[in-house]
Amino acid sequence: MNKQIISFPKDGKPSLIPNRWQVWDGEHDEGGIPDLEHGMHKVLVPFHWWITHYKNPDIIHRANQGEIGVWFAADDDILKHTDIIEAGKSLWPVVGAHFPIFRDGRSFSTAALLRGRFDWQGEVRAIGDVLIDQLLQGARVGFDTFELRADQNLDVALKQFDLFSVVTQNSWRDQRATIAAS
Amino acid sequence: MYKYDHIDQTLVDQRVIQFQNQVERRLNGTLAEEEFRPLRLQNGLYHQRHAYMLRIAIPYGLLSSKQLRTLAFIADKYDRGYGHFTTRQNIQFNWVELEKTPDILAELAKVEMHAIQTSGNCIRNITSDAFAGVAADEYVDPRPICELLRQWSTLHPEFAHLPRKFKFAINGAKEDRTVLLCHDVGIELKKNPAINNGELTADIYAGGGMGRTPILGSLIKQGLPWQVLPSYLTALLRVYNRFGRRDNLYKARIKILVKALGPEEFARQVEGEWANFHNEAKQSKDNFTQAEWERVAKHFTKPNYKDLTELSDEQLQSHADSKLNASEKIGFTRWLERNVKPHQVPGYASVILSLKPHGTAAPGDATSAQMNAIADLADQYSFGELRVTHEQNLVLADVEQMELLNLWRAAKNYNLVLPNIGLLTDIIACPGGDFCSLANAKSLPIAKAIQERFDDLDYLHDLGDITLNISGCINSCGHHHVGNIGVLGVDKDGEEWYQITLGGDQGNDASIGKVIGPSFYANEIPDVMTSLINTYVEQRTADEPFIDTYRRLGVAPFKEAAYRNNGKHSKESSKGAIA
Ligand code: HEM
Ligand code: SF4
Fold first, then answer.
1. A168 vs B7: CB contact, 8 Å cut-off?
2. Beta bridge partners of A22
3. Do B152 and A168 touch (CB under 8 A)?
4. Ligand 2, residues B427, B473, B498: which to mutate, most atoms within 8 A of Cβ?
5. Exposed end of chain A (fewer CB within 10 Å): N or C?
6. Does residue B500 contact residue B460 with C-beta atoms inside 8 Å?
7. In chain B, what is the straight-line distance between the N-terminal and C-terminal CA atoms, in Å?
8. Backbone phi, then psi, for B491, in 5-degree steps?
9. For ligand 1, which residues put their CB under 6 angstroms from it?
10. Whole-angstrom distance, CA of residue B401 vs CA of residue B309
């Protein structure tokens, strides 16, 4: 897990912040969430795991402490579970959307739906195979934190966000420049 | 034609810097080739058999003389003195160096050009009618919509990594000159007094494409007001982005999703997604506004046409006759017949410059000298603009009829007036095995051999309209599925063979050709063509074009003739490939 993540709030500036959330892949489930790394209390669990475990009292307790978020796999159809996600809005401090490989763009649409359809106001984190050259697109569709793949250079990453001063279509973050010019 | 303002210019300039940075990281080893690949592809940079190839967008086929001169300059400075115009209104340079590509892109940005999204799994360069704005059969000039959608799709963040490439074609005329139904999305523009207050609307076709599984697009939406195109297309692409297949490269195009769901169900899912955008509050944000329309459309006004009287063909001919000798007369008459097209404005015509000389250059290739000459012709005869056709030719769209003869003479010096437009030798061909590392077989030598076999213009004119398309593999870059005659390179045990299809067609009666039988060796192809053409000549009724004869008779007589003397498939009787 990466010790630092990029945070880029919608109306703020990009910066590096400590990573407080460990992503659990859902493997080695021996009746609950496994032990987290030293010093970590907060965990992103797979959404499909949440669906089958969220009534478990231990999970409810930890969720109420603000220690559990979920992450969506690229092939999770989030529109099939609107009730659970609506309920999750008041429980999860963070949701993640996963990139199994950098060139799989499904999680861009997941983030766009979370912002546009579910009106999700909290943090949306990009996890998995997140590379420098996905940051700009991710930031525009709805992600505001990024846990980059461990080998990525964070200084180069931080410089990506001011490469473009204009955009030509609307997105979560910005309106097209062309409309103001018209 | 469209002129960049500071927004467009800033965007392409900053895109050059972004790419420069990506190339630097590639060269210093911090960006792995596998991860660089989609980034370079989204900037039109392929790796071919021998070198890098750069594909540059010519959005909806429109070029200024200044831009063409820049392309000529790039051909000379960074390539080997020529470029290749493709079937999707792009130009390709086959011999560029990775290190130099940022410089090339910077040169392009200076003349309002780019290579953004000419490849990769994103929304590609949008193609349209090469005769937009001048065609006599036009309902609506599609160019403002093309440009609005070019901007909307450029660096669209949500659709940067689709399951596969995504191609739009947009048409606004009675005749379809865009191969609309072979595109992932085809947009047909209309004006109907009964819909949208008589304002522009769009019919949307989805799920067309060629390749391994050729499918024609299905109508999924009618009468869509132009203003809502961004939200509707976002909904459509979102459905595809989420549910298009990613497990199998050959099943990843939208055509497979539309086929698997059925067009009705696909349309329903798009509609469901769209309903979410299409409420009062959000609509106002996403829709194109009238002001945006005007920002773009003001550049597509008519040029400063003179008040001229329309000349009939006879008048044109007799005007020229006195100035031409006997052999010139035949050439000019044929050229008027094949390469000159009617115009909306009296006294004007559109001229197609043929990039299909018989056997001396690859279809669609132009040298830098030709490009510079064509730029001069455009300045002198056609308001400094030209267009690229998907058949890989160039068009001077606004030529005074009285200047046709002068233009013909000037263009002749550069070998650009062969009167073969729409004829058998106006071959569409992909680069094939000479350049492309995906090829099963060469396509350029086949095109050359056919052009050499059918070099008699009298005979070609007598044969009339017929399309012949060649692809070096099933990816179908040469559109062989929609050629009246299609030639496809196939690999059998490491040898190059060619499969023939018949009955494909583009345009309003688009259809996919059918394979006639086992494949042939390269050196049999000219004879096979002769057999097919002879069959047509024997069987046709007066004035019946090839495709109609084929549709009337079916494949049997053609097939019988093709295999009567050829296709023995024994290495002794028919050896090897054409050199
Ligand atoms: C290095 C050279 C090229 C490579 C590697 C290449 C690769 C490909 C591939 C892999 C496909 C199939 C996509 C699919 O079906 O999913 C394709 C399709 C296509 N290519 Fe190319 N291509 C090259 C050059 C060209 C050229 C020069 C042209 C135009 C003359 C062209 C025009 C097209 C068109 C029109 C299609 C679309 C077929 C369809 O709709 O399915 N390509 N290309
Ligand atoms: S059809 Fe095949 S051989 Fe021809 S350019 Fe496309 S990929 Fe290459």
1. yes
2. A43
3. yes
4. B473
5. N
6. no
7. 43
8. -110, 125
9. B 46, 48, 53, 86-88, 92, 164-165, 182, 209-211, 253, 430-431, 436, 438, 475-477, 479
10. 9
Residue written as tokens 């494409």? Answer: B209
Tell me what ipTM this predicted complex has.
0.97
Tokens of A145: 């934190």
Over residues B173-188, the pLDDT tens digits come to 999 999 999 999 999 9
Structure tokens at A20: 């407080």
Flag whether the pTM goes above 0.80: yes
Nearest to B476 by CA among B152, B212, B182, B130: B212
DSSP B368-416: HHHHHHHHHHHHHHSTTEEEE-TTS-EEEEEEEGGGHHHHHHHHHTTT-
Beta bridge partners of B309: none
- Name the residue among B212, B222, B224 with its Cα closest to residue B255: B212
pLDDT, averaged across chain B: 94
Nearest CA to CA, how far is A79 from chain B (Å)? 10
Alpha-carbon distance of A15 to B467, in angstroms, equals: 59
Q: What is the mean pLDDT of residues B142-162?
A: 97
Closest CA to B343 of B191, B173, B202: B173
Tell me, what DSSP letter sits at residue B135?
A: B
Residues having CB closer than 6 A to ligand 2 are B 430-432, 436, 438-439, 471-473, 475-478
Q: Distance between CA B513 and CA B471 in Å, rounded? A: 13
